[in-house]
Amino acid sequence: MNLIFSTFELRNMGNIINIKDITEGTASNTSGLSVYTVMKSSLTLDDKITLSFDGVNSMSSSFLNSSIGAFIDDYGFDAFKKTVSIINYTPSTLNMIKSYLKDINVYA
Amino acid sequence: MIIQVKYYTLLNGWIDFINKNLLRNQKDRPEELIVDFSLMYFIKPFQIVMLSCLIEEYYLAGTKITFIEGNTSVKKYLTDVRFFEYWNGNFNRSKYTKQNKGTSLFLWKIGKSQIDLYTDYAKRYFQDGYFNNKDLQPLHTILSELYNNIFDHSGSTVDGYSYVQYYPNIDSIEISICDFGIGIAKTINDYRVRNGESAVDEVEALKLAFQKRYSAKSMPHNMGLGLHTLSTCISSVKGSVELYSYNSYITKYR
Fold it and tell me: Which of A68, A83, B116, B204 counts the highest number of beta carbons within 10 A?
């Protein structure tokens, strides 16, 4: 699990997606879909995507379903691990994402 | 048509009152609905949202809504939250409504496109005004899970209503949300039958709804985490949940 959020990724951050630039809120499916749409359009072969959670303090399961969950649905968890990094997260944001990934059973 | 609102000692009495006054058939809608509060001496947030959904049904069908406000403390309470203005022609029930009651967040007709704005606003409102900037992230999470649940699963005819009240004497926030959807048990049992499983009784269905990873897949993105997240979040703040859906009722306490 540490590999995903490792700061080693900072050397090649690829496209940095600032969540708060895309959507004001992180409560709804709609806002999650907005993030996923940007993630998808940022994704090219060999590229990295970095999600910046600067200013994000809480997220609903619907938001996560429609953003990270949708990415994993479409591309698989291995691609998610290889491609996506997160930065500028608070401890509670990190816990939410970790819990979410555990809850959807993508890692033990 | 007149609806006499009054206090019921037991929840069942109130539920029966609401059920008895539902608009069953749009073709039978009355020209005018008069809601009489003159015998109501105390009103709770859950009653406000259920009444709002009931009134909204009639309003959407084209019925004129008027009120007998009465002379009890309920009149003052409802006047302070501007309840009696809500079904006047141009009143926007989905937008922020400045009201005279600081400890409650305005009665809100839940709008899908405003979930983000409202949940952020609710968190800031209580955090800045009453909780000395203590982080109210659980409030944001709880509200967003509840609102998304309505639009993902309920099929409600009236969207829904939300009311959040802070009680400073007991340092407690009460969130009340109502929709007139098809019901959790029906959603779950329809899903079970479609997938070759037998239907379960309504209380069992409510329990399943809170189970992690149990989803009726009403929308493709549903992962069965919403109500579980809600329950976990409420437990983390030592709160409780009371859920009423059609003929079944469960509570979850810390």
Answer: A68
CA B23 to each of CA B20, B57, B83, B225, B239: distance values in angstroms, whole numbers, following the listed order? 9, 7, 20, 33, 34
Q: Which residue has the higher pLDDT, B181 or B100?
A: B181
The average confidence (pLDDT) of chain B is 88
- Rounded to 10 deg, the angle between the B226-236 and B137-149 helix axes is 150
Task: Please report the number of interchain residue pairs, chain A to chain B, with beta-carbon separation below 8 angstroms.
Answer: 82
Side-chain half-sphere CA neighbours of B183 within 13 A: 14
A95 touches chain B (CB under 8 A): no
Confirm or reject contact between B159 and chain A (CB < 8 A): no
The whole-angstrom separation of Cα B104 and Cα B161 is 14
DSSP H or E stretch at residue B32: strand B32-39
Residue in the block written with tokens 């007149």: B2
Grouping H, G, I as helix, E, B as strand and the rest as coil, residue B89 is coil
pLDDT in tens, A60-71: 999 999 999 999
Residue A103 with chain B: CB contacts under 8 Å:
212-213, 223, 225, 228
Check pLDDT > 60 for residue A108: no
Report the C-alpha gap between A58 and B136 in whole angstroms: 10
ipTM: 0.75
Cβ–Cβ below 8 Å for B221 and A63: no
Question: Quick one: CA dihedral A65, B195, B214, B253, positive or negative?
Answer: positive
User: How many whole angstroms separate alpha carbon A106 and alpha carbon B155?
Assistant: 30
